[in-house]
TrEMBL record:
It comes from the Bacteria. It holds the Pfam family HapK. InterPro entries: Dimeric_a/b-barrel, HapK. This is REDY-like protein HapK.
Length: 104
C-alpha cells in the first residue's frame, strides 16, 4: 500500500496567498522533492465546495506527499533546517499533518 502524508493548511490572511504560492514553488517543492523517502509532492489550493450541499473547507491548501515509508519521511523531516518550517509557519494561522494509506 502507498503511504501519504497530508498537510492541511490555513493561511493567516488572503493577503499572503501569492507570496505563499511563490514560496511553495521556489522553496518548499524543491526541498520536499530532495527529501529521502519522498516519491511525489503536490500542493492543492482549495477553492470551494465541489457539490451542492457541501460547505467551504476550513483549510486553504492540502499538501499531498507520497512517501516510501513513514519512518524514513519522519527522519528526513527531522533533519530539515528549522528555518524552512519557520518560513512555512509564517504564512499560516493553522495546520495539521496526518499520515494515511491508500486503500487498494
Amino acid at each position: 500500500m502507498s503511504e501519504i502524508v497530508f498537510f492541511l493548511t490555513t493561511l493567516h490572511s488572503e493577503d499572503v496567498r501569492e507570496a505563499y504560492e511563490n514560496w511553495v514553488r521556489d522553496v518548499d517543492q524543491p526541498a520536499a522533492d530532495a527529501l529521502p523517502g519522498v516519491e511525489r509532492y503536490r500542493v492543492v489550493r482549495l477553492e470551494g465546495p465541489a457539490t451542492e450541499g457541501s460547505t467551504t473547507p476550513a483549510y486553504s491548501y492540502i499538501e499531498i506527499i507520497e512517501i516510501t515509508d513513514l519512518e524514513t519521511y519522519r527522519k528526513s523531516v527531522q533533519a530539515t533546517p528549522a528555518s524552512l518550517f519557520d518560513q512555512f509557519r509564517s504564512y499560516l494561522s493553522a495546520f495539521d499533518a496526518v499520515a494515511g494509506r491508500v486503500v487498494e
